[in-house]
């Protein structure tokens, strides 16, 4: 084993750290991933590579778009890139991360300002994948940071050069958007996800509250304009930041998020130029610090003694690292007392680094103190609960072999292949309102046309309809109208006509008498 150098693991009271003998096991040549062509267009905010218990993911050098190479973590050697790519982004992929609860899901963020979610086939890659299951749109400029929520299922948050921090439900699109004063350089959540710490290009450290959708705390961070990063030690509820001073000395600070007026502890590390990337083991409270371009990885313990952060050791190698990825606890080998495993990206290869505690009996006896309950591979709540501002700490699980740890790999079936963003919602609202306005205008026009039609057809209908009440009144005196025939003079007309007929007869008689 490579024995750590520069170890200084005691407190001011002479208390020793139990992890002062953690070492890096020597990597064998057949454990390397070689023949790689990593992309050079990667932002300092990126992790540069990602890994879980099944896969290794690297942004690949390619022209005319962005590619991510996916390789089986248990199949090292010289890689054959053909058939191992995720293709679909219009620009280089800047950051990417594996789903914490589904091992075969990976999210990628690109210069094309989109986030894409990909489903990897069971058994590994057997051909390029050209179409993502879900594409999220909403940022105006290239996305530089992507993270999954550690406790809520299907929740992603991203940061872009448009100075926006966005939260996404991967099945239903954008849910929250926070406008920062400057470009966001790093971000991390507290234990239950109710708060988020971040750094920006204004050399500030902020604490963001999603319930208020604003920064509730803003303080000056490190003095240099170089990229600075912050992370939340969740179980201890402390912040760890790393950056550079105005004199370009790389620094490490510890903060209490409840009292951010002054840091708890600070230390100048060296005059290195590379950006420091922090990684934290929530179970053992070990902080790992590796800089881009450095050949070393420092590690510390965060504890209750004074000072709050104590040096453990430093791993050194002759080849510098371009990036580091820390594997989840489910990927560790408990029989060799492995406490952490990193994948170290170099120019054309990836080297696994296995950090181990010196416990000879680990092969036969499970080490309870080395492997306490760790964050579970099952979510504590769903995306709908989280965006309804229900917060829960992550579930926990046992690390004992056979206890059923490890993320699931069930097929992901999104409810929609095109989740809606906030812009989509606003656009749809405008479309609906436009249709409502058209309907209102048509209704007004219809009323006018009906009025015209009523005027054209009104006279006949009004004559028949108007007398209706009068007819009813006329029907009431109807009996008087029936008596009229008895009094009618026309009935006497024949009697009046008879004398008129007799007169000619008398005249004839008189005429005969005269003769």
What is the strand and helix layout of this fold?
Blueprint: E1 23-25, E2 33-34, E3 49-51, E4 55-60, E5 66-72, E6 77-78, E7 85-89, E8 93-98, E9 105-110, E10 114-119, E11 134-137, E12 143-148, E13 155-160, E14 164-169, E15 173-179, E16 184-189, E17 196-200, E18 204-209, E19 214-220, E20 229-233, E21 238-244, E22 250-255, E23 265-270, E24 276-281, E25 286-291, E26 296-302, E27 309-316, E28 323-326, E29 338-345, E30 349-356, E31 374-375, H1 383-387, E32 396-397, H2 422-465, H3 467-475, H4 478-487, H5 493-514
Parallel strand pairs: 2-6
Antiparallel strand pairs: 1-30, 2-30, 3-4, 4-5, 5-7, 8-9, 9-10, 10-11, 12-13, 13-14, 14-15, 16-17, 17-18, 18-19, 20-21, 21-22, 22-23, 24-25, 25-26, 26-27, 28-29, 29-30, 31-32
Keywords:
515 residues; globular; 6-stranded mixed β-sheet; single chain; 34% strand; disordered C terminus; disordered N terminus
Describe the structure.
The chain has helices at 383-387, 422-465, 467-475, 478-487, 493-514; strands at residues 23-25, 33-34, 49-51, 55-60, 66-72, 77-78, 85-89, 93-98, 105-110, 114-119, 134-137, 143-148, 155-160, 164-169, 173-179, 184-189, 196-200, 204-209, 214-220, 229-233, 238-244, 250-255, 265-270, 276-281, 286-291, 296-302, 309-316, 323-326, 338-345, 349-356, 374-375, 396-397. It is α+β, with helices and mostly antiparallel strands and 515 residues long. The strands form eight sheets. Strands 1, 2, 6, 28, 29 and 30 form a six-stranded mixed sheet that branches. Strands 3-4-5-7 form a four-stranded antiparallel sheet, with no helix packed on it. A four-stranded antiparallel sheet has the order 8-9-10-11, with no helix packed on it.
């Amino acid at each position: 084993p490579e024995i750590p150098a520069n170890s200084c693991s005691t407190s001011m009271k002479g208390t020793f750290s139990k992890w002062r003998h953690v070492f890096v096991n020597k990597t064998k040549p057949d454990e390397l991933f070689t023949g790689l062509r990593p992309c050079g267009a990667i932002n300092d905010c990126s992790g540069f590579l990602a890994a879980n218990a099944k896969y290794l993911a690297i942004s690949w050098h390619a022209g005319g778009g962005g590619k991510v190479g996916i390789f089986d973590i248990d199949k090292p050697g010289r890689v054959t890139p053909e058939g191992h790519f995720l293709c679909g982004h219009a620009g280089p992929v800047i950051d990417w991360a594996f789903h914490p609860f589904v091992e075969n899901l990976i999210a990628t963020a690109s210069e094309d300002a989109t986030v894409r979610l990909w489903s990897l086939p069971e058994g590994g890659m057997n051909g390029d994948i050209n179409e993502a299951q879900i594409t999220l749109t909403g940022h105006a400029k290239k996305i530089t940071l992507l993270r999954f929520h550690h406790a809520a299922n299907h929740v992603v948050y991203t940061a872009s050069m448009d100075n926006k921090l966005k939260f996404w439900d991967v099945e239903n699109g954008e849910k929250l958007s926070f406008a920062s004063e400057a470009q966001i350089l790093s971000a991390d959540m507290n234990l239950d996800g109710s708060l988020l710490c971040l750094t920006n290009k204004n050399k500030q450290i902020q604490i963001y509250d999603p319930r208020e959708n604003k920064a509730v705390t803003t303080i000056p961070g490190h003095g240099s304009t170089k990229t600075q990063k912050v992370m939340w030690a969740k179980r201890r509820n402390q912040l760890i930041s790393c950056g550079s001073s105005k004199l370009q000395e790389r620094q490490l600070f510890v903060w209490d998020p409840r009292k951010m007026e002054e840091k708890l502890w600070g230390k100048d590390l060296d005059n290195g130029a590379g950006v420091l990337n922090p990684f934290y083991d929530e179970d053992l409270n070990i902080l790992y610090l590796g800089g881009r371009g450095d050949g070393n990885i420092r590690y510390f313990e965060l504890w209750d003694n004074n000072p709050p952060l104590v040096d453990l050791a430093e791993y050194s190698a002759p080849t510098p690292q371009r990036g580091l990825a820390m594997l989840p606890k489910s990927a560790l080998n408990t029989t060799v007392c492995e406490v952490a495993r990193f994948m170290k990206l170099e120019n054309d290869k990836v080297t696994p680094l296995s950090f181990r505690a010196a416990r000879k009996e680990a092969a036969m006896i499970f080490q309870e103190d080395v492997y306490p309950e760790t964050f579970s591979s099952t979510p504590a709540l769903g995306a709908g609960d989280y965006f309804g501002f229900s917060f829960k700490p992550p579930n926990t699980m046992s690390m004992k072999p056979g206890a059923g740890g490890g993320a699931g790999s069930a097929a992901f079936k999104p409810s929609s292949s095109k989740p809606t963003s906030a812009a989509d919602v606003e656009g749809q609202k405008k479309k609906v309102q436009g249709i409502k306005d058209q309907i209102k205008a048509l209704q007004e026009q219809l009323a006018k046309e009906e009025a015209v039609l009523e005027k054209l057809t009104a006279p006949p209908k009004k004559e028949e309809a108007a007398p209706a009440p009068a007819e009813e009144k006329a029907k009431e005196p109807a009996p008087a109208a029936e008596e009229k025939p008895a009094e009618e003079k026309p009935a006497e007309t024949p009697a009046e006509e008879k004398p008129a007929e007799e007169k000619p007869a008398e005249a004839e008689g008189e005429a005969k008498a005269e003769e």
